[in-house]
Amino acid sequence: MHPCPRCGRLPPHGRTASGLCVYCGQFLSTVDWVAWPPGGYQVRGPRPQPRYTGPPSYPIPPRWGFPLVTWRRPRSLEPVPATNGQRAGALAGTAQPLLWLAAAVALLTAGAEVWRYLLLLDSRTDALPAGQLRTSDALVVTGGVVSVLVSALAGLVTLAWVRRAYAAAAEVAGVAPSRRPRDLVVGWLVPGLNLFVPGSTLAEIEHAVLGRPPWRRPDPSPLVRAWWAAWASGVVLAVITLLWSLRDGTQAVADGVVLHAVVDVLAAVTAALTAVVVRVLTELLQPAVAGRARRMVVVPVGKPAGAAVDGGS
């Protein structure tokens, strides 16, 4: 007979039938726990008990155990391949800041070109300070180099986004892409083709994402049309400016400065419009891709119309 582990009292008439203490209701265990050293139960009697000699050892490797295989990566840790829509969203997050940076640098370069043109006008009647000339040249050269580098980087990321967005839009529409990735790259980079392929590509992406019939001719939105016009105008004007810079003479130099300023302004407008188009098309593409999977949503249930109000009669 053992006392109650909670109140410490002994049962008045031995262990109760219910197995509970009559004073506090604590369960009275009927099992006595006994700790023995390694080796099992000790048999009482004249036979000596075996002495513990440590863990078992084997003269040869036992045949039981785990197989001798190399470590394998668990399947739960294997990376899940990203879809074209997810890759397009990630590339859009990188392309947009670069495009806005390219627009800002292009505007600064255009301002430097305008200042150079004003200095050219002042130089017709008076000599210019050397400090202003050196500062103007430094701004124009630095702005031109930085603008080209940032625009090239933003263009590469945007072109990668176009490839992923074009494939994702085709998947959403349930059709095969009409252009191969190589054709997209060639159409965006080759002079002449880059006047038509970029705009039609964005129009096809927009057409597929909006769920329009595949057999219908794409009808670009005003935003895509504005981007297409700015892009084509910038490409044509850049070629004209490049050819104009081959001419000699003071007037040709002055006209070249004006053309460079206009090209920089158009480049800034095109970069800003590109950032907006990338954002809009990505937002249209993401719900379309995510909408293919069902998701359970918990919604609140309102009180029935005939339910009683607390405190009412």
Descriptive notes:
By secondary structure, the chain is mainly alpha-helical. It folds into 2 domains: 1-30; 84-290, no CATH class. Helices cover 54% and strands 0% of the residues. It is built from 6 helices and no strands. Helix 1 packs antiparallel against helix 2, helix 1 (84-122) runs antiparallel to helix 6 and helix 4 (197-209) packs antiparallel against helix 5.
Helix content: 40-55%
Q: Helix count, per DSSP?
A: 6
Helix and strand run: HHHHHH
Shape: elongated
Oligomer: single chain
Domain unit count: 2
Runs with pLDDT <50, length 5+? 307-313
| Largest beta-sheet details | none
How confident overall, as mean pLDDT?
Answer: 80
Radius of gyration computed on alpha carbons: 40 Å
Count of β-strands: 0
Offer a few descriptive terms.
6 helices; mainly alpha; 313 residues; 2 domains
Describe the protein's topology.
Blueprint: H1 84-122, H2 130-173, H3 181-189, H4 197-209, H5 222-244, H6 250-290
Short description:
With 313 residues, this protein is mostly helical.
